[in-house]
Design a protein that fits this description.
Distance between the termini: 21 Å
Order of helices and strands: HHHEEHEHEHEEHEHEHEHEHEH
Largest sheet: 7 strands, mixed
Number of helices: 12
CATH architecture of the largest domain: 3-Layer(aba) Sandwich
Structural class: alpha/beta
């Protein structure tokens, strides 16, 4: 059993599609199918249920998936140590995503690399992209892009946005609730501010003052106190146990989450391990 076959199996399991996994790993679909059949023949077990929409792991397939994930993690660790890559990780993320999302991954990496040096920078999308181009960080996660030709963008997921505020009644109309409300934002370059402005323009209503807060937790507190309204991802409202929120128009409800690097940056084994450990947050094959 070789590493490439293991990667193919894991990719199919996570994509739940042989064709999607083939596209992400830049393989022919026929080659990917052959790899899966070879693994099933090797273990003499059916590892996937096939259906019209794709594939699902069998019970035995799930066991093998978990084992292969462990092996691939150890493989990347071995590659890093034997090729003597620097034990460093320089990452960036938007404030609304938050570094706390990565704490479990960083803790696990620290156990494998006790001398691991971690740099974490947070900020709006334009600032994170600037830090990438200056070489102060190497990889980052952003919501939306500045479409810079010197940056490589890979879509890593989708965020669903909702509106936070005080006294929200599930039966209230969005336009009635937000009319005249202050806007709570992280910065004047915040993508969420642009979305809010479009919503107010489309509904032909006026908003109140724009209040730049700069801290996500403070925005949540101010919104709950009735000082204004703000957009947040459903992941954030779940993190802060916010039960009352309003859905926004579907045109603005979903925004793309991106994994970014400099154009010619080659991922190190540690960066690959970090991506794998954060698979529950982002959906990215490297």
């Amino acid at each position: 059993m070789d590493i490439e076959n293991m990667k193919a199996f894991v990719s199919v399991a996570e994509c739940k599609s042989i064709s999607a996994a083939a596209a992400k790993l830049n393989h022919l679909q026929s080659n990917m199918t052959a790899k899966i059949k070879k693994i099933e023949a090797y273990y003499n077990q059916e590892l996937f249920f096939r259906h019209a929409k794709g594939v699902e792991l069998t019970t035995d397939g799930e066991k093998l998936y978990q084992q292969f994930k462990k092996i691939l993690f150890l493989w990347e660790e071995t590659e890093n140590k034997m090729k003597k890559h620097d034990e460093k990780l320089r990452i960036g993320t938007m404030v609304s995503i938050g570094g706390t999302q990565f704490s479990n991954a960083l803790n696990k990496l620290k156990k494998s690399y006790p001398d691991l040096s971690v740099t974490l920078k947070t900020g709006p999308t334009d600032e994170i992209e600037k830090q990438i181009l200056l070489g102060n960080i190497d990889i980052a996660y952003t919501i939306g892009t500045m479409n810079n030709p010197q940056i490589k963008y890979r879509q890593a997921g989708v965020e669903e946005l909702v509106l936070m505020g005080a006294g929200i009644d599930k039966n209230i109309r969005l336009e009635d609730y937000i009319n005249g409300k202050n806007l709570l934002i992280l910065s004047d370059n915040c993508l969420y501010l642009s979305i809010l402005r479009h919503i107010f323009t489309d509904l032909n209503i006026q908003h109140g003052e724009i209040i730049e807060v700069g801290d996500l937790e403070t925005i949540v507190q101010f919104a709950s106190m009735g000082m204004g309204i703000s957009l947040a991802s459903k992941r954030i409202v779940n993190r802060y146990h916010i039960n009352q929120y309003l859905e926004i128009p579907s045109l603005y409800r979903y925004i793309d989450l991106y994994f970014i690097t400099r154009l010619n940056h080659e991922l190190t084994p540690i960066e690959k391990q970090f991506i794998e450990l954060n698979h529950s947050i982002i959906n990215l094959d490297y």
